[in-house]
Amino acid sequence: MNEGKKMFNIVLFEPEIPANTGNIARTCSVTGTSLHLIEPLGFSIDDKHLKRAGLDYWDELDIHIYSGLEVFFKTVNPARLYFATTKAGNYYNEMRFIPGDYIIFGKETKGLPEQLLKIKKDWCIRIPMKDNARSLNLSNSVAVIVYEALRQNSFTEMF
Fold it and tell me: What is the residue range of 41's domain?
């Protein structure tokens, strides 16, 4: 990865399943994407399932942990933040991702806080699914959107 370029940022709001976060960490590591975790987490960072899913990629991962959503916003104050949710009207591939963008995903059981989605309605994105489907697996959703952001930028963030 070219260290002079800004990468994309994946934000997990209160993730609950260690294997999902481990898989996401691995995706972030191999794509040069930063991972931001907002507590409380449903597991310990030392969890064996988390480590197993991320395998030997933890040393290469750019990871940041925040003690809550308010701390995240005060610390990062992202200029461009997309909200991945099944409740969005915009499809993820209709957005134009640029390096430095943040994409936030909600917890596996509840998603993102409803009041946040209402405030940022134009920045909410979703992955198309059948009407009767509840949602994709969190780690799959992250991979779909990260690779779309990279594709839109000719994968230049990876080299």
Answer: 9-158
pTM equals 0.91
Distance between CA atoms of 84 and 82, rounded to whole angstroms? 6
What 3-state class would DSSP assign to 8?
Answer: coil
Is residue 2 very low, low, confident or very high in pLDDT (cuts 50, 70, 90)? very low
Helix (H, G, I), strand (E, B) or coil at 139: helix
* Residue-by-residue DSSP string for 30-57: HHT-EEEEESPPSS-TT-HHHHHHHGGG
Beta strands in the chain (DSSP E): 9-13, 34-38, 63-66, 81-84, 90-91, 102-105, 124-126
Does a structural domain hold residue 1? no
Q: Name which of 86, 26, 19 is nearest 55 in CA terms.
A: 26
Q: Tens digits of per-residue pLDDT, 74-90?
A: 999 999 999 999 999 99
Residue whose entry in the numeric block shows the structure tokens 């909410």: 124
Amino acid 1: pLDDT? 38
Please name the residue that has the structure tokens 């449903």.
Answer: 42
Domain count for the chain, please give it.
1
Task: Look up residue 6 and give its two tokens.
Answer: 């800004």
Domain-located, residue 90? yes
